[in-house]
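Example record used in the benchmark description.
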Amino acid sequence: MPSRGSGPDTLLVGLDAACEPVLDRLFDAGADLPHLRAILDDGASGPLESQVPPWTASAWPSLYTGTNPGKHGVFGFLDFDGYDWDVVNATDVRERALWELLDSQGLSSVVVNVPVTHPPREFDGALVPGYVAPDDPACHPAGLLREVREAIGEYRVYPRHTGGSETTTTEKVAEYRDTIEMRGDAFRYLEDRFAPDFGFVEFQATDTVFHECPGDFDAVRAVYEAVDEQIGAILDACDPGTVVVASDHGIGEYTGYDVRLNTLLRDAGFTETARGGRGMPSWDVIRDEQFLDDGSGDEGDERDSDSSAGGPNDSETNLLERAMETAARAGVTSQRVGRVLERLGLAEVVVRHVPKGMIRAGTEQVDFPASQAYARSHIECGIRLNVAGREPDGVVPREEYDAVREAIIDLLSDLETPDGKPAFDDVARREAYFEGGEAERAVDVVVVPRAFDQFLSTQLRETAFGPPTEPYNHKRDGLIAATGEGIDDGASLAGAHLFDVAPTVLATLGLARGEHMDGDVLALVESMGERAYPELDERDREATDERAVEQRLSDLGYL
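Model output (structure tokens):
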């Protein structure tokens, strides 16, 4: 095992959505990133292929467990129970995290801001949770958050702003920089306080800036420079033996189409819809800049129009909603109204004054119990079947499951976008992507958009294709880099995969790969062989009851 110096033997720096195209552009533009440049220049680096789906809530557990979602059990931001849902949390993760494996071998860890780590389990060390935790999360050990705030000042999981159009880019960037500094300050304090063998700090703003400031390269540059500054401060203060930088996925511009899965399924007779009433919405968020969508979850999750901006009062809103429900039953849905308003150039004006509850009331919605199949969340990259005996009101008999699934695969496999190109790189049974005890919780049909340049949408519209909902979104290739003790800086990283990060980190600490892991030790460090680690003790799932978390995910287009 490496000899311990003044800091952790291994430091893992997580950069959400970091990838070579982004860093190359930053370097070419002269961005002030001396510490990231030194790590890449002095060590080994290359693309890191992400999993399907390449999204934060599922990908980070894959990275820190070394297993596919079929084993660890998190497939997106939402956990589905029948037709109901809840935001995922650490109790959904059914495999041991790196720091828990290290604890079983007598090593300690400090973990700061890693997504899907709330509520934390006990281990030797300290953990401050990251994304999908509430803003005042339970930490480990108990009372740690209060201690951190007393030591460094303010600490927040999320920036203060909501991500809406009322916040300027300048204000957003200032908030990003503040939270980035909080991550660095917290990690340095806890590293000094606990003297861990392993450190893991994650920076989320490198992803968020693309969703909230699309196309603004100056904002991206400001975020990365702030992150680089904190990496440098951590390296100076902690002096780790080995440094590994890894991301959960990449990010880039989307130049393809929205591919509306529920529209395709509806037109083929697999998805039933309802007009008017509360119905069963498809959980695509109603975005500020977008007049039309499928609806949202609970109406309390939405930011209703403010009457001070000219919107109706409560009684008028209720009357308008009832009128819109009646119109929708007659076929005058808000999608159809929106198309007319768009042609007249009035959509942006109307959306500022019409209550979103009224739009939702008039929207054609997926009727989940009546449908054979549907897309629940674009982040899942797939389609779920409504199976008798599995879902509460399932309509697909179990003996017809394979036939219905194959019919959907056949429907989508040869689909082309309006420019004559394939819509998808792959349409497959879930078994092709997920393996393990939790695999049955995955989508039944996996849909991989072509080059992740097509945006999978759950929207119901008249046509199956449209402009991409978001101009920037996730790509398959992220980044890995490593430098320091025991690292072969000339090693090839060809074929490096997200699942390889955890076994590689174990090897840097002189520990064997877990035999349960799906990844392998990368060539940049000597493998210590393979062994069994203690299995995770069962614990009951805890529901996420935090509206602020749901709103934050909604603002970023994840719900």
